[in-house]
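Figure 3 (text version): structure tokens given as input.
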């Protein structure tokens, strides 16, 4: 089996890297490193007839030639690499992290951004490659159900393998980076993350004098260049009069994340859709209680170790945050359950279960192209 490893700082790159660290050289697993995902496959909202699109097409062909020289089964570690699978003759596995852009393609969003013509062509190749794959790995039961329901994949071709956590990194620490009490949000500002709901709920808290010193700390980049995500966020902050109470850190080093989690009153992730959702588990592992929307894979991943709130419900979210800010017993119980829950997710387990999928695939051929 040849595992394609993408280099970069995104969650899907972390997945590929963590698998590589645990599987390279094990039971005949070899790797193929590439930056094509960062340079090409992440390129969205570019006109079809443009110089960037032409350059990307050239890079696509170069990478496809590399893949076609491989004479053993391949593992494509994210669903946007599935576009190359449509042109392969060897068996291949695709890990599907979510169908977020599929929903945007079908007009159900925007969860990220409405695709233009070029996006539609490439996303069509992605989903054709997923349908043709010898086997699929879904990172949650939610994602598996989406594959079966929306892409018509037979359920027996989809193995659910949860992603893991780096417990050497994500653990309780004494270091603190913010002096004031704060609520934490970690992630992009894509529409699906529903940061506006959190801002509205935070405004409700700030209207109470007892929370006058409270801040909202937002960790992470705004998102890609395909839409003005940060401009929209700043407009929402200004409309609510929160300019002095919201802190944008941008991307931070991985080594700083435990300190941000550990110092927070709680993490809030009000996403309308996640295929997995790392921040709640990372927070739990660091002893930070989490509040998540009862949507997508978040209830599945969080289990009973997070407070669940209805999506798009600022009063309910404000109430949940106030509970964790004022009820020490509720907070303590959630922290204890969170630490236990986080321990159930490890990259060693992910690697072991992925290797089991490889063993099955190595005896199969891909379905005929259609």
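Below: residues designed for each position.
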């Amino acid at each position: 089996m040849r595992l394609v490893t993408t280099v970069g700082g995104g969650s899907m790159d972390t997945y590929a890297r963590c698998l590589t660290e645990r599987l390279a050289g094990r039971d005949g697993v070899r790797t193929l490193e590439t930056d094509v995902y960062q340079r090409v496959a992440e390129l969205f909202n570019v006109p079809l007839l443009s110089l960037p699109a032409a350059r990307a097409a050239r890079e696509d062909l170069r990478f496809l030639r590399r893949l076609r020289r491989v004479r053993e089964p391949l593992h494509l570690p994210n669903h946007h690499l599935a576009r190359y699978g449509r042109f392969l003759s060897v068996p291949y596995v695709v890990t599907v992290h979510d169908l977020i852009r599929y929903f945007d393609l079908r007009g159900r969003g925007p969860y990220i951004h409405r695709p233009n013509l070029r996006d539609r062509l490439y996303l069509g190749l992605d989903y054709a490659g997923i349908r043709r794959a010898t086997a699929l790995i879904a990172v949650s039961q939610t994602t598996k159900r989406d594959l079966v329901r929306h892409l018509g994949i037979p359920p027996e071709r989809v193995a659910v393998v949860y992603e893991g956590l780096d417990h050497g990194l994500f653990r309780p620490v004494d270091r603190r980076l913010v002096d004031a009490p704060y609520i934490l949000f970690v992630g992009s500002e894509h529409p699906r993350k529903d940061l506006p709901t959190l801002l509205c709920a935070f405004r409700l808290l700030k209207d109470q004098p007892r929370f006058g010193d409270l801040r909202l700390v937002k960790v992470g980049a705004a998102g890609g260049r395909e839409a003005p995500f940060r401009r929209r966020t700043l407009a929402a902050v200004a409309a609510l009069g929160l300019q002095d109470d919201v802190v944008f850190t941008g991307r931070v080093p991985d080594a700083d994340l435990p300190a941000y989690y550990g110092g927070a009153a709680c993490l809030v992730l009000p996403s309308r859709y996640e295929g997995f959702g790392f921040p709640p588990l990372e927070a739990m592992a660091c002893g930070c209680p989490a509040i998540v929307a009862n949507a997508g894979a978040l209830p599945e991943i969080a289990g009973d170790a997070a407070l669940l709130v209805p999506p798009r419900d600022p009063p309910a979210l404000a109430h949940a945050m106030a509970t964790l800010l004022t009820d020490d017993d509720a907070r303590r119980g959630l922290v204890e359950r969170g630490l236990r829950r986080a321990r159930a997710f490890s990259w060693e387990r992910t690697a072991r279960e992925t290797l089991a999928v490889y063993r099955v695939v190595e005896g199969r051929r891909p379905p005929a192209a259609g």
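The domain at 182-343 is CATH 3.40.50.2000 (Rossmann fold).
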